[in-house]
Amino acid sequence: MNRLKHRGPDWSGxxxxxxxxxxxxxxxxxxxASGDQPLFNEDKSVAVTVNGEIYNHEELRKKxxxxxxxxxxxxxxxxHLYEEYGEDFVDMLDGIFSFVLLDTxxxxxxxARDAIGVTxxxxxxxxxxxxxxxxxxxxxNDDCEHFETFPPGHLYTSKSRGFRRWYNPPWFSESIPSVxxxxxxxxxxxxxxxxxxxMTDVPFGVLLSGGLDSSLVASIxxxxxxxxxxxxxxxxxxxxxxxxxxxxxxLKAAKEVADYLGTVHHEFHFTVQDGIDAIEDVxxxxxxxxxxxxxxxxxxxxxxxxxxSLGVKMVISGEGSDEIFGGYLYFHKAPNKxxxxxxxxxxxxxxxxxxxxxANKATSAWxxxxxxxxxxxxxxxxxxxxxxxxKMIKKDQGRIEKWILRKAFDDEERPxxxxxxxxxxxxxxxxxxxxxxxxxxxxxxxxxxxxxxxxNASYIFPHNTPTTKEAYYYRMIFERxxxxxxxxxxxxxxxxxxxxxxxxxxxxxxxxxxxxxxGRAALGVHLSAYDAEAPLISNVPSxxxxxxxxxxxxxxxxxxx
Length: 561
Known about the structure:
This is Asparagine synthetase [glutamine-hydrolyzing]. With about 550 residues, the protein is of the alpha/beta class. It starts with 10 loop residues before the first strand and ends in a 14-residue tail after the last helix.
C-alpha cells in the first residue's frame, strides 16, 4: 500500500476475507467525512474498493430504494448495484472508475475499468496462483510473474478467469456514421459533460493554457458554477491554473482568457533545468518510456505539486478533444472522411496509453484528481455519430482543425471566448512547451547516451528499440524502475508523426522519412515544420519567427519559446 500512498493521502483501508485482500488509499473528493473504503453492502457480504467518480450516483440511488447506504460517497452504489443486477450493472455507471468487488458468499471477485481508461489499472498473476490488481504498475510488478494493462471498458471475473468487454458503443465498430452536424447538439452535450463534473465536496479548479480545449472547459465551468453545491461550499469564483517557462508570451494567452472569464488565476513558472531534474520522478510515476508522454507529463507533474500545495484536490482538464475531432495537425492530410473517422476511433481506443495515462498519473502523484469532460461517454457518442465529412479540414472553406467544435461555441450574443482564441490554430503540448523544452531534453540526453550505446540499442532493447538518444535515455531510467519483461510490453510503440498512428503515416509520403512525435514533423502543415535531419528553422528572419503563435493544447500549460 505504501507504494501508492501518493494517490490517496486521506485514508488507508485494508480488508481481509480468507485469502483475499482489499487495500485502498483514498483521495476524498465526495463525502470526505464518511466515505472511507472499502465500502460494503448492508450485511457486509459484498466489499468493494473503487478509484474514480460515479457522476450519476444520485440517480442510481433512486433505483435502489430497498437498499440502505452507509455513506454519501458516490462509490457507495457499486456494492448495492451488484446485489441487484449482478455483474451486468457496470454499464449503468456514468463516470470514471476502476474497482475490485469481492463477494464473500462464494469468495469470488470482479474487476472493472471505465470505458476509455481515464483511471489507470493493471492486473498481474503470481506463481502461487494469486491475482493482483493495482492502479499503478509499481503496486504489483515485484510480486507477479506476469502483469499487463487492464483493458479499458472491460470486466474480469474470477469465475470465468477471463475478460469481457462491457463497453460496446456504436462507434467502436468503426463503421462510418451519417448523422448531420448540428452545432447546438454538440454544445449542449459538452456543457452537460462539464456540468456533471462539478460534483465535489472539496476545493477545485480548472487547468487553463489559453488553447481552445482548456479555454472551453474553463468558460463552461465559469458560466454554470453559480448555483451548484460546489459554489455554495467554496464560492462561485472559479480558480484557474497555468504553468510555463518564465517570461513566456503564451502565458499571456491563458491570462487573457482568465481575465475574460473572471477567474482567480494562478500562474506557475518552471525552468528547463527544473523539468530535466524531475525526469526520473516523472518516469517513476507515469510508468512509461514513450517520448511524447514524458515530454508532456513533466510540466503537468510540476504544476500538480503546486496546485495541491494550495489545498486544491480536483481539477477539470481538456484531454481527448483532438482524438475525437481530428485536431492533431497531421489530420490536415487525411485523404477522405472514412480514413479520418477510422483514425479518430483508433486514437480514442489508445488514449489510456497516452493522454489519460499522463493526466491521471501526473496529478495523482501529488494526490490531485483530474476530470476530463471531453471523454464523457455520452458526449463521445454524440461527437462520434456525426458524419465525419464535417470533421474534414478544408482550408479553402475556412475550416481549420476542430472546426465543428469551434463553430458550436461561436455565440455572438453570449460569447464563450474571444474570437481569436476560439479560432486559434492547434499546437500539441510538447511543441508549445517544446521548442526550447524539447531541445533542452535532447541536449541532456545526448550528454548521457553515446553514439556507441546507440549502435547496440537493438540488442539491449529488442522490444520497442529506441531510435533516438532521448528515447534511449528515458528507456534506461524506465528499466531501472521496472526491469520486468511485462513492464516493457505495457508501453506502446510503432511509427508516428505528430502523434499519429502508424497507419496515418501512410497519408503523406514525406512523413515516412521524418518520423517524430513532434507536431513540427507534420511537413507542409505546421507553421514551423521541420525536417528531422535539418535545422528546426532556417533562413527565416527572427522577427517573423517571433510572430509565429505557438500554442500549447495540454490544459494548464502554456509556453511560448
